[in-house]
Write a structure and sequence with these properties.
Membrane topology (chain A): Lipid-anchor
Order of helices and strands of chain A: HEHEHEHEHEHEHEHHEHEEHEEH
Domain ABC transporter substrate-binding protein PnrA-like (chain A): 51-353
CATH architecture of the largest domain in chain A: 3-Layer(aba) Sandwich
Protein name (chain A): BMP family ABC transporter substrate-binding protein
Order of helices and strands of chain B: HHHHHHEEHHHHHHHHH
Shape of chain A: globular
Signal peptide (chain A): 1-22
Mean pLDDT of chain A: 88
Radius of gyration of chain A: 21 Å
CATH superfamily of the largest domain in chain A: Response regulator
Largest sheet of chain B: 2 strands, antiparallel
Number of domains of chain A: 2
Pfam families (chain A): Bmp
CATH class of the largest domain in chain A: Alpha Beta
Strand content of chain B: under 5%
Oligomer: heterodimer
Strand order of the largest sheet of chain A: 2-1-3-4-5-11
Number of strands of chain B: 2
Radius of gyration of chain B: 23 Å
C-alpha cells in the first residue's frame, strides 16, 4: 500500500509538473516583452483572453498579440492579457471573462473558438461590454448585439499555399500536419488539398493530425509535430504544410534535419520572420491568417463607437487571409498563385471547407 | 489526553503539508520574480458567491473522480484509466440519452445506469487482462486512455453534428434535464442539480468499505494479498469487481455536467479530471471524507487562480505547481507523522515497562 502511494504520488506530481513545464516557456516570454504592462492610454481598455498555451507559439496567439500591440500604439489603448489553464471547462472560461468585464475591460477579445459558449453566456450578463471571439461561433449559439465572431476563410488562404506547394514540389509528394482533427483545421486541409489538386491532381498528399480532440496534444506539441513531419519527409514528401500552432515549431525542426531541397509552409503569422536563422531557407511561404488585423479592426471599430456584431468574415477579398513572400522562394510563381487568387476573389473558383 | 494527542497527530499531517506547500509556492514565486504577497491576497480572498458555486460544482466532479481512483487504491490496484472511463461513459451516455428511449426522468435514470455500465465495461477490459494474462493494470489503463480518446473522437464524428467549430452529439431531450439549484440570489452560476450524486457515491463508498464483507475483503487484499488468499479471499474475483466498481463510479463523473449544463457530448469536453482524481484520492488518503476535503482544496485552488492573471499579474499556471507540491507534501508529511507516532508509542511502551507501578499490569 505505501509503495503504491509513493508511485501514485510520484506520477501525480510528475503529471502536474509536466503541465507546468509545458507552459513555462510561454510564461517567460510574457515576462520579457509585455505591451500591456504599463499601458495606460486613454483609449479602449482591451481585455484579451488566450486559449491554452498563450503567447509564444509564434503563430496563432502571437498574431492576436500583434493586433493588440497595434491597438495600444495606434488607439492609445490599455490592455490586459490572460492565459487559460489546462483541463478547463466552460465554467472556468466564463469566470475569466466575467473577471475581465468586472475589472472594467471593454471590449473583451477571446482568442479561440473554444470560448464561444462561454462568451454567449457571459455577454448576456454584461450587455454594456462588447465581446469578440476569434474563430468563434457564439452568434450561432445566441445572437447578441454585443457579440462579434471574427472568422476567417482559412480554406482560401490554404488553397494558395497548396498551389505554391504543387508548383514547387519535385517529388510530386506533399504533406499536411494538422493540430486537432476538427472542423476548424479541416478547413485548412480542404483548402490545401484543393489548391494542390487544382495544379496537378496526380500529386500525392499525406495527411496527419496530431490529436483527435486534445488541444494540448494538437497545438502544444512540437515533438509530435516533428515526428509527424519527419515521417512524411521519409515517406517521400518534400514539402509539408502545418496548421498546428506551436506544434508547427517541430515541423520546422524536421525540415531543417531533412536538409537541402526540403520545404515547410508556415501558418497564421509570417513564420519566415520568426524561425531560427538555420530554418529560414526552408520556409517556402506561410498562409497568413490576419488575426492581428481582426483584433485591431475590432478594437478600432469599438473605439469609433460602432463595434460590429454577428459573424465578421475575413477572406481573401478583404485581405484577412493571404500568403507570404518573405525569403523570396515563391517569387517565380507569384503570377500563377495570384491568378488563382483573383479567380477565388471573383468567385470563379469555389474552395471547399471540408475535405 | 491520549485522544487529544491522537487527534492532534491526525491533523498535524495535513496542516503541516499545507503550510510547507504554501512556503514552497512562495519561494517559487520569489524565484520567478513575482510578488508572493499579491498571490496570497488573491488566493485567500473570500470568493464571490458565483465562485463558491463553481467551487462546489468542480469539487463534486473531482470527488467522483477521486472516489473512482480510491476504490482501486484501497485494493492496491492502480487504476489510472479513470480519464478514459469517464470519456467513454460520458459519450455513450450522451448518445443514449439523446435517443430518448424512455420519457422524462426515466431517461435520466436509465442514462446514469448506462454511463456506469459503460465506464465499468471499459475498466473491465483492464481487469480481464490482469486476471487472465497478468497484464499490469497500470500499463493497460494508460493505453486504454489513449484508445478511449481516439475511439470516442472517431465515433463522435460518425454520430455527431457540427456546431460552429466543434462536433457534438444530439441534445438530450429537455424533459430529462436536471436544472441547476440557485444557491445565492445574486449569483449568475447555479449548483449542479446532480451534486447529490457525489454525496450518494461517497456514502455508498463508505458503507461498502466499512460495513460489508466485500469491503472487508477489499481492504484485506489491499493490506496483504497473501494473507487474504490464506483467509479464503478469491483475489482474481476481487480484482474484477473492484475494477468494475471503479469504472462505474468513473462513469458518473460526466453526469452532472451532461444533465445540468452541456446537454450533449462535444469535442471540447473538459479533460484531465480523471488524472486530477488520482491526486485528490492521494490527498484524501482514500478516505471518503478525506477525498471530499481534497476535492474542495483542489477546486478552491483552481477557482481562486482565475483572478491571478487579471488582478495580480501572475500566471495562473503557478497553481499547477501548488497542487503538485501539496500532493507531495501530504505524502511526506504523513510519513513523518507516522514515524513520529511510532516513536511516541515505543517510548510509551518503554516507560510503561520501566515504571514500577504498571509493570504489574504488563506481567498480568
Amino acid at each position: 500500500m505505501r509503495r503504491l502511494t509513493k508511485i501514485a504520488a510520484a506520477s501525480a506530481v510528475l503529471a502536474l509538473a509536466l503541465t507546468g513545464c509545458g507552459n513555462d516557456e510561454t510564461g517567460s516570454t510574457t515576462g520579457s516583452e509585455d505591451i500591456c504592462e504599463g499601458s495606460s492610454g486613454n483609449g479602449p481598455k482591451i481585455g484579451l483572453a488566450y486559449d491554452v498555451g498563450g503567447r509564444g507559439d509564434q503563430s496563432f496567439n502571437d498574431s492576436a498579440y500583434v493586433g493588440l500591440k497595434k491597438a495600444v500604439d495606434d488607439l492609445d489603448a490599455s490592455c490586459k492579457e490572460v492565459e487559460a489553464g489546462t483541463g478547463e471547462n466552460d465554467a472556468d472560461r466564463e469566470e475569466r471573462l466575467r473577471l475581465l468585464a468586472d475589472a472594467g475591460f471593454n471590449p473583451v477579445v477571446a482568442v479561440g473558438f473554444v470560448y464561444s459558449p462561454a462568451v454567449a453566456t457571459v455577454a448576456a450578463e454584461y450587455p454594456d461590454v462588447n465581446f469578440g471571439v476569434v474563430d468563434g461561433y457564439a452568434t450561432a449559439i445566441k445572437e447578441q448585439k454585443n457579440v462579434a465572431d471574427l472568422t476567417f476563410a482559412e480554406n482560401e488562404g490554404s488553397f494558395l499555399v497548396g498551389v505554391a506547394a504543387a508548383l514547387k514540389t519535385e517529388a510530386k509528394n506533399v504533406g499536411f500536419v494538422g493540430g486537432v482533427n476538427g472542423p476548424l483545421i479541416q478547413k485548412f486541409e480542404a483548402g490545401f488539398k484543393a489548391g494542390v489538386e487544382a495544379v496537378d491532381p496526380k500529386i500525392e498528399i499525406q495527411t496527419q493530425y496530431l490529436s483527435q480532440d486534445d488541444p494540448q496534444q494538437g497545438f502544444e506539441n512540437p515533438a509530435g509535430g516533428e515526428t509527424a513531419a519527419t515521417g512524411m519527409y521519409d515517406n517521400g514528401a518534400d514539402i509539408v504544410y502545418h496548421a498546428a500552432g506551436k506544434s508547427g515549431l517541430g515541423v520546422f525542426d524536421a525540415v531543417e534535419a531533412a536538409g537541402e531541397g526540403y520545404w515547410a509552409i508556415g501558418v497564421d503569422s509570417d513564420q519566415y520572420l520568426t524561425v531560427d536563422e538555420a530554418q529560414k531557407k526552408h520556409i517556402l511561404t506561410s498562409m497568413l491568417k490576419r488575426i492581428d488585423t481582426a483584433v485591431f479592426e475590432y478594437a478600432e471599430a469599438f473605439d469609433g463607437g460602432s463595434a460590429p456584431s454577428g459573424f465578421v468574415t475575413y477572406d481573401l477579398k478583404s485581405g484577412g487571409v493571404d500568403y507570404s513572400t518573405s525569403g523570396g522562394f515563391v517569387d517565380d510563381i507569384t503570377d500563377q498563385i495570384d491568378k488563382y487568387k483573383d479567380q477565388i476573389i471573383a468567385g470563379e473558383v469555389k474552395v471547399p471547407t471540408a475535405p | 489526553m491520549k485522544t487529544l494527542q491522537r487527534a492532534g497527530l491526525a491533523l498535524a499531517a495535513p496542516v503541516l503539508a499545507l503550510v510547507v506547500a504554501g512556503i514552497i509556492t512562495s519561494l517559487v514565486l520569489v524565484a520567478a520574480g513575482d510578488d508572493p504577497a499579491a498571490f496570497w491576497e488573491t488566493m485567500l480572498a473570500w470568493p464571490e458567491n458565483r465562485s463558491l458555486v463553481n467551487i462546489i460544482n468542480e469539487a463534486s466532479v473531482l470527488y467522483l473522480s477521486g472516489l473512482a481512483a480510491a476504490i482501486g487504491f484501497r485494493m492496491n490496484l492502480f487504476n489510472i484509466g479513470v480519464e478514459g472511463q469517464y470519456r467513454v461513459a460520458t459519450f455513450v451516455a450522451a448518445y443514449f440519452a439523446a435517443q430518448a428511449f424512455l420519457p422524462g426522468y426515466l431517461n435520466t435514470v436509465a442514462t446514469i445506469l448506462v454511463a456506469m455500465l459503460a465506464g465499468a465495461a471499459w475498466a473491465g477490459i483492464a481487469a480481464l487482462l490482469r486476471v487472465t494474462r497478468g497484464v499490469s493494470e497500470v500499463i493497460s489503463t494508460i493505453m486504454l486512455n489513449a484508445i478511449a480518446v481516439s475511439l470516442v473522437a472517431y465515433l463522435l464524428r460518425k454520430v455527431g453534428s457540427r456546431e460552429g467549430q466543434t462536433i457534438v452529439t444530439d441534445t438530450v431531450p429537455q424533459s430529462g434535464w436536471i436544472p441547476g439549484i440557485s444557491l445565492f440570489p445574486d449569483s449568475v452560476t447555479d449548483m449542479y442539480g446532480l451534486v447529490f450524486l457525489a454525496v450518494l457515491a461517497g456514502i455508498g463508498f463508505s458503507v461498502l468499505l466499512n460495513r460489508t464483507r466485500f469491503g472487508f475483503d477489499l481492504r484485506a487484499t489491499g493490506h496483504s494479498e497473501s494473507a487474504a488468499v490464506a483467509s479464503g479471499v478469491d483475489v482474481k474475483r476481487m480484482v474484477i469487481y473492484s475494477m468494475l466498481l471503479s469504472g462505474a463510479v468513473a462513469g458518473l463523473i460526466g453526469m452532472p455536467n451532461l444533465f445540468g449544463v452541456s446537454h450533449n457530448y462535444g469535442s471540447t469536453i473538459q479533460t484531465g479530471i480523471g488524472f486530477a482524481g488520482i491526486a485528490v484520492a492521494l490527498l484524501g488518503r482514500n478516505h471518503p471524507l478525506g477525498i471530499a476535503a481534497g476535492a474542495l482544496i483542489f477546486a478552491y485552488l483552481s477557482e481562486q487562480a482565475n483572478p491571478l492573471g487579471i488582478l495580480a499579474g501572475i500566471s495562473p499556471e503557478i497553481i499547477a505547481v501548488t497542487q503538485g507540491v501539496v500532493v507531495l507534501c501530504v505524502v511526506i508529511a504523513y510519513e513523518v507523522v507516522r514515524r513520529y507516532r511510532n516513536k511516541l508509542e515505543q517510548r510509551a511502551v518503554a516507560e510503561a515497562l520501566e515504571a514500577p507501578g504498571p509493570s504489574k499490569e504488563v506481567t498480568a
